[in-house]
Specification:
The protein has 7 helices and 7 strands. The protein is of the alpha+beta class. Helix 2 runs antiparallel to helix 3. Bound molecules: coenzyme A.
Length: about 220
């Protein structure tokens, strides 16, 4: 049984944290692609794309080309979202983690080590949504693929809940996408309640039926 240590982020962790974050985001592009493949409207698109050139000009080449184009578009939809998200965050909070998370009241960033290897991350930021009540937002939850299914994210969730309680927050809130099924199962299993599901606005996001899902964990006053 390997030993797990959750500790605060330090500057020397940056290369490993960056790798975990970017790889985590990039892998979600594959999740989005395979999710898109299962959707009936995309099957209709592929079927139409295949049949129309075949029946109208009798071209099997154009028919196959159309299907390939739909597949490429589906891949690009997820890629655009998750690669774009990784780039945006690397230019924002993930650019200088110490400055963003460790030097401000109510913010924090933790990493989890397993036998000296950095295998997961989580962060907390103050949030005043959905109203003016003081909440803590959980962010940057990521566990490397090789260490998933060992309960690491539950430990990280508890770390944020404990921190939020100490800071006097009423609740821990977060948002994720409906594509991130292990994450939504994780939050539900930790007692988070879904507060809202909202559609995304871009055509590319709708093509893969991606939605935002919002969760909230009310911190018991007697905790
Ligand atoms: C979501 C994620 C953090 C889970 O990490 P993990 O350490 O493997 O999760 P744990 O082993 O702690 O499992 C905790 C719970 O999550 C759920 N879960 C985890 N993996 C799951 C899977 N593949 N399918 C369904 N539920 C899953 C289960 O409810 C599990 O509880 P249980 O074992 O009692 O049933 C990890 O899969 C990950 O990093 N995913 C990619 C990044 C991401 O989506 N992050 C969330 C951003 S909001």
């Amino acid at each position: 049984m390997s030993s797990l240590t959750v500790r605060q982020y330090k500057n020397s962790d940056f290369p490993a944290v960056k790798k975990i974050f970017i790889e985590g985001c990039h892998k979600l592009a594959y999740t989005a692609f395979f999710h898109g493949l299962k959707l009936p409207h995309n099957w209709v698109l592929m079927l139409l794309g295949f049949l129309l050139p075949l029946l109208s000009v009798g071209s099997i080449f154009l028919a196959i080309l159309d299907v390939v184009i739909v597949l490429v578009v589906l891949w690009l939809c997820g890629r655009r979202f998750f690669y774009g998200y990784a780039t945006e965050c690397m230019a924002d909070d993930m650019k200088d983690i110490s400055k963003y998370y460790l030097q401000r009241e109510g913010y924090n960033f933790w990493v989890v080590e397993s036998d000296g290897e950095l295998v997961g991350t989580v962060a907390a930021v103050p949030s005043y949504l959905p109203s003016v009540e003081k909440n803590t937002e959980l962010k940057r939850m990521n566990v490397v693929s090789s260490h998933r299914g060992k309960g690491i994210s539950k430990v990280l969730c508890r770390t944020v809940i404990e921190f939020a309680h100490k800071k006097g927050s009423k609740a821990v809130v977060l948002s994720t996408t409906t594509l991130q099924m292990p994450a939504t199962c994780l939050y539900r299993s930790m007692g988070f309640k879904c507060t809202n599901i909202s559609d995304m606005t871009q055509f590319t996001e709708r093509l893969i039926s991606m939605q935002w899902i919002f969760f909230r964990y009310d911190i018991p006053s007697s905790k």
